[in-house]
Specification:
Elements (H helix, E strand, L loop, with lengths): L1 H5 L5 E6 L1 H12 L4 E7 L7 H15 L4 H12 L8 H13 L6 H13 L12 E7 L7 H10 L3 E6 L6 H4 L1 H12 L2
Length: about 190
């Protein structure tokens, strides 16, 4: 909200992916008058017990000294659809770009992130979201399962769901044209 105030923006369209979708939900619940339309990609109103354990395991690997590159490779299997691995250039470029990022997340930062995720729960407050909402989910997402994302449309009054075929958790990276088209179509209607 402070950023919108600083920029003198009364309300905006909000898009959130994964944990960013958790943040977007909280923003839309707490500041409904500041949200025009809401797009939630690969997210849910809670973190599953399985994911909490998965993230704790990923944290342990880093705390025990696992190098960043093999750690990233382990993550990839949770983020991308199986057929994406046929495109070796895409996968290698993703790893290369991530390793080149000048501000990598620290282990302490990742620990804080997973602690926040494990406490996240909006299922009982989704009805407070007033904005017209589009939930976008990859048909092959195994990190946030489609049935978990569907909880959002059951709880948000003015919501609809769009599944993108042949994608998993990173829809915007796997099928950027389809993702952008869906978002722009939603925002322009």
């Amino acid at each position: 909200m402070k950023l919108l105030d600083h920029l003198c923006i009364q309300s905006a369209h909000i898009i959130g992916h994964s944990m960013g979708g958790y943040i977007a939900q909280e923003f839309a619940i707490n500041y409904p008058e500041r949200v025009n339309k809401l797009v939630l990609e690969s997210t849910a109103p809670l973190s599953s017990t399985r994911n909490d354990l998965l993230f704790q395991n990923f944290l342990k690997l880093r705390q025990e000294g696992m190098d960043l590159e093999p750690w990233l490779w382990t993550w990839l299997f949770w983020l991308f659809a199986p057929q994406r691995f046929e495109d070796k250039e895409f996968i290698n470029q993703y790893i290369k770009n991530t390793l080149k990022y000048p501000y990598p997340q620290s282990i302490a930062g990742f620990k804080g992130q997973i602690e926040a995720i494990s406490k996240f729960y909006t299922r009982d407050r989704l009805g407070k979201i007033q904005a017209k909402t589009l939930v976008i989910e990859g048909k092959e997402d195994i990190l946030i399962l489609p049935r978990e994302a569907e909880m959002l449309i059951k709880g948000i009054p003015k919501s609809s769901m769009l599944y993108i075929e042949d994608t998993a958790h990173f829809i915007h990276a796997e099928k950027p044209k389809a993702f952008n088209r869906a978002v722009l179509e939603f925002l322009n209607t």
